[in-house]
Structure formats: C-alpha cells, structure tokens
Design goal:
The complex is a heterodimer of chains A (about 130) and B (about 230).
Chain A (H helix, E strand, L loop, with lengths): L1 H32 L5 H10 L15 H14 L8 H5 L8 H14 L12 H4 L1
Helix pairs in contact in A: 2-3
Chain B lengths: L8 H17 L4 H15 L9 H16 L6 H7 L6 H14 L9 H12 L3 H16 L8 H15 L7 H7 L3 H17 L7 H5 L17
Helix pairs in contact in B: 1-2, 1-3, 2-3, 3-5, 6-7, 6-8, 7-8, 7-10, 8-10
Classes of the chains: A mainly alpha (about 130), B mainly alpha (about 230).
C-alpha cells in the first residue's frame, strides 16, 4: 500500500513538472513570436511604439537580429513614417487633432472627392451646350 | 440619366441663393450648405424634375444634409414653414426617400470648405484672407460653370486669389506638396473666381454678398478691388 502511494505521488509530481515545463515552453514561444523574450527587445518594442520606460542603457545591446525584428514590427505597425506639416506639429499633443494622420487623411480625401462631383453633361446640359 | 429640360442655370442659382438665406436663418454649420448643394447637383444630374419641384428638392437636400452634419437639425415642419407651405410634410419625406435612393445612400462628400480649412491652416493665412477665400468659395457654389472644377481645386484657387488680392505670398512649394496642384493648374479656376468676384455686386442674387457683409465675416464683401 505504501509503495503504491509513493508511486502515485511520484507520478503526480512528474505530471505537474511536465505541465510546468510545457507551460514555460509555451510562454517562451509566445514571447519569442511577439519578440519580447528578453528585456532589451522589450525596450526596443516599446520605444518603437513610442512608449518610453526609461531603460535607455539597453540601446547599445541591439544586434542585427533585433534590428530585423524592428523592421518586421515597423512593417506591421507603421507602414511609413508620417510626414507632418509645420502647422500639424503645433498640435502634436492634441489627440483630437490626429495631426500625424492629417496628411494621409487629406491625400485620401483628394482621391475620393472625384465620385461625388456631379456629372456636368447630365446636369442642366441643355442650357450650357 | 437624362438632361434637365425644365430647369436652367438661372433657376439653380436662384434656388441656391435662397438656400444660403435659409442656411443663415437656421444658423446651420458651414459644411451643411456645401453638402446641400452637392446633393442637389447629384440628384439633378440623375433625375429629370419639373421646375415646380425644384424648391422641394432644395429643402429636402438641406433636410438630408442637416441630418448628416448637424447636432440639432431643424424639423420637417420648419422646412414647410420656410417654403411658405408650398409643399406638405409628406411631399418632403417622399422626396427624401427618392433623393437618398438616387444617390445610393452615399452622402459623404468632401467640400471645398473642408479643403479650404486645411489649406489655409497649412499656408498660415490671416483671418481676413481666409474670409475672402470663404466668400469666394460660396460665390462659386451659386455659379453653375464652377461645377467643372474639383472642390479641392476651388479651395486652392480661392486661397490663391485671396492672397493675391491682399498682396501676400500666394503660392509656394509647401502648397504644391499639400494640395498636389501646380500654380498653372490653379490659375484658370482663380481667373473664373475673379470674374465672379467682380460681378458679385452686379447680379440680382445678393444672399452671399449680404452674408459676408456682416461684421462676423469682417465685412469682407465690401472690399474695393483694384483694377489691374
């Protein structure tokens, strides 16, 4: 009976251990996928996203691999660096003004204004012809 | 698609001139007026209507534009009142359905006013020049020939002409970059606007001129133009 209990106990322990190992592996894999498995990368990611945590000493530790990660991140999060006009820079801290997108928004509006321009030949055509 | 047989550009101008008055009376947003005119033009380019219904199209377009832009839109009975009971509530609601169906529920339109706001900010023009440019784009609303220009081009040209009148720097690389027009693309429209401005006091349609003669708009329509 005692030996059976011991056996069960060891089995249980090994299961728990296995589970924990699996869990660690999974978290590690997840972190790697998101590129935040070590603090230096975490800092880079945060600085790319514009959040400063004050860990500036880590910048020098960037490797080639890490730089490529930033590129991938940039492609996903920021297609290109927003071009800001002088007048938009004044409103940089005003979230309602969305100044970093102003140029893009008006480029888009320039493209989409065409379909809503009335067709002149159809409108009062008889008079102007 | 059909051309209008019963309506001419003079009737359109009278309608819009009256709508400018109504817009002022109801104290609506600036954007609403521009959207109203756009809705009228798009509807008229798609459907033939008799001249008796033109005012109905006008007030209904304003009703739709108000629903789109305003926080406190006027009620249908207010439109019945401004037309002096020429149309009933049912007629306005019926026309509303027709207009919306004709436009395929696509109400979004970027007006010259919206572009002017942006360009004047980028160019950094003063208030007086801005109001003159505003006056010019509202004069352009009434004129049928100005429909051929894109709203962004009208806004650019209005600002260009206003700067020229007040002897300011009218064009630079920054404006070319932002507006995506060259000076030569802006000039023809600016010339047409200049003609409109010169004839503004001679026409019988005075709603826009009267509106911009108020103190709120720095009495900009009262300026005397140099002849050169």
């Amino acid at each position: 009976m005692k030996s059976r209990n011991l056996k069960l106990k060891t089995l249980e322990n090994s299961f728990v251990q296995e589970q924990t190992e699996n869990w660690d592996e999974k978290t590690e894999a997840l972190k790697t996928r998101r590129g935040i498995q070590d603090p230096s990368k975490q800092f880079l990611l945060q600085s790319v996203r514009g959040i400063d945590l004050g860990n500036t000493s880590r910048v020098s530790e960037t490797t080639e691999k890490e730089n490529s990660m930033i590129d991938i991140e940039n492609k996903v999060l920021f297609p290109k660096e927003p071009v800001m006009e002088e007048c938009d820079l004044k409103e940089k801290d005003n979230p309602q003004y969305v100044s970093e997108y102003a140029t893009e928004i008006f480029d888009y509006l320039r493209e989409t204004e065409v379909p809503t321009i009335p067709i002149l030949s159809n409108l009062l055509g008889k008079v102007l012809a | 698609m059909s051309k209008q047989g019963d309506i001419n550009e003079k009737m359109r101008a009278i309608l819009i001139d009256w709508l400018v008055d109504v817009h002022l009376k109801f104290r609506l947003q600036n954007e609403t007026l521009f959207l109203t005119v756009n809705i009228i033009d798009r509807f008229l380019s798609a459907y033939q209507i008799p001249r008796q219904k033109l005012q109905l199209v006008g007030v209904t377009a304003m009703h739709i534009a108000c629903k789109y832009e305003e926080i406190y839109a006027p009620e249908v009975k207010d439109y019945v009142y401004v037309t002096d009971n020429a149309y009933t509530r049912e007629e306005i609601l019926d026309m509303e359905g027709k207009i919306i169906a004709a436009l395929g529920f696509n109400m979004t339109h970027t007006s010259s006013y919206r572009f002017l706001e942006r360009y004047s900010r980028v160019h950094g023009i003063d208030e007086r020049t801005y109001y003159l440019a505003r006056y010019l784009i509202e004069l352009a609303l009434i004129e049928y020939k100005m429909i051929k220009y894109a709203p962004s081009n009208i806004a650019c040209s209005a600002m260009y002409l206003a700067c020229k009148i007040f002897k300011k720097e009218a064009w630079n690389n920054k404006m070319s970059r932002v507006a995506k027009y060259t000076e030569s693309q802006v000039r023809p429209c600016a010339k047409d606007l200049c003609v409109l401005l010169q004839h503004a006091s001679k026409t019988s349609l005075q709603a826009v001129k009267k509106k911009f003669s108020y103190e709120k708009y720095m009495e900009i329509s009262k300026i005397q133009l140099d002849r050169h």
